[in-house]
Amino acid sequence: MITEDFAAYAARLRIGYSTSIPADQLQAMLESFMSGLAMDCLEAGTRLIGHIKCLVETGDEIIACSVTDHDARVRCRGKFEAPRSEVDLIVNVLQYGLRKKDLVRIVANCGKRSFVSHVSLSIEDLEIEEKQLIQLG
To answer: Which CA distances in Å does 127 have to 19, 28, 93, 104?
Structure first.
């Protein structure tokens, strides 16, 4: 069910630190980011969360987290196993009630707030707009 008030946002966040951050602190920051996204969306006027998901993939580690309800409870498969000085994650937000520009602002603000002590934070919009239609037959 996609209605007029549906908006989606996909982004890559690259977070850098001057030194390695312990794995348990990174996990707490990731979960705080995900929960914060849900709460910020709800406070801004989201009426229904389709899903908020993220994926962190580096080397042998794959961490997938999601929030799918108004309780903002984060569920993760996998966790950080080693300290890191860089985190690269992809986040995908599907919801009803806010516009994409609201989601862009919320993701940026929540990233800055959740990944404390970062020395760099970049956000890349991953939405792809098709310039040409593919014609079959």
So the answer is: 31, 27, 12, 11
Neighbours of 68 (CB within 10 A): 14
> Going from the N-terminus, what domains does the chain have, and what CATH number goes with each?
6-125 (3.30.70)
Per-residue pLDDT tens over the stretch 28-52: 999 999 999 999 999 999 999 999 9
DSSP-assigned states of every residue in 34-51: HHHHHHHHHHHT-SEEEE
Torsion sign across C-alpha atoms 82, 15, 73, 59: negative
Question: Is the dihedral angle over the CA atoms 57, 63, 67, 73 positive or is it negative?
Answer: negative
Tokens of 92: 């995908």
Angstrom distance (rounded) from CA 24 to CA 14: 19
User: What pTM value is reported for the model?
Assistant: 0.89
